[in-house]
Design brief:
The protein is of the alpha/beta class. 40% of the residues lie in helices and 22% in strands. The two termini are 28 Å apart.
Length: 155
């Protein structure tokens, strides 16, 4: 398994934005909360101090996670649209239901958001259509049984 994390430019920028927010806004807020809690006295029974320490651990953990993610990130470059690839937006028709046409953007697993039509390149549907052209029928192997889709358009 690869250590690479595939991200679109938009996904990369969203992660950078979250990281900057954590470093520039949340971290100083947590430091202030820790100082305020320390000023209350006895730390052994200080719930405010414990809560601030827990929040500090969460913020620092998320910062580290995002920094590692950006280090491993490989930006998805725009490719030609004759074949489905990472970063492509593909329109598919489900063969068993001619009226059911869906459009998905194929992104890396860290950016996947099915509710916004972004599917992971590791999903059964993406694996089935990757490398195929418009008009081709692909078999999607899913845990609920196999089904066929036809590639209608690639953007």
């Amino acid at each position: 398994m690869s250590n690479k994390v595939y991200l679109t430019n938009e996904g990369f920028l969203e992660i950078e934005e979250e990281l900057n927010h954590l470093k520039e806004v949340k971290r100083p807020e947590v430091i202030k909360a820790l100082k305020d809690a320390r000023a209350l006295g006895d730390l052994s029974e200080n719930a405010d101090y414990d809560a601030a320490r827990n929040e500090q651990a969460q913020v620092e953990g998320r910062i580290k996670e995002l920094e590692q993610l950006l280090e491993k990130a490989e930006l998805i470059e725009k490719q030609d649209t004759d074949k489905v690839g990472l970063g492509a937006t593909v329109t598919i028709k489900y063969i068993d239901d001619d009226d059911d046409v869906e459009e998905y953007r194929i992104v890396g697993s860290k950016e996947a958001d099915p509710s916004n039509d972004k599917i992971s390149n590791e999903s059964p549907l993406a694996k089935a259509v990757m490398g195929h052209k418009v008009g081709e029928v692909c078999v999607v192997e899913s845990p609920n049984g196999n089904y066929n889709v036809e590639i209608m358009e690639i953007k």
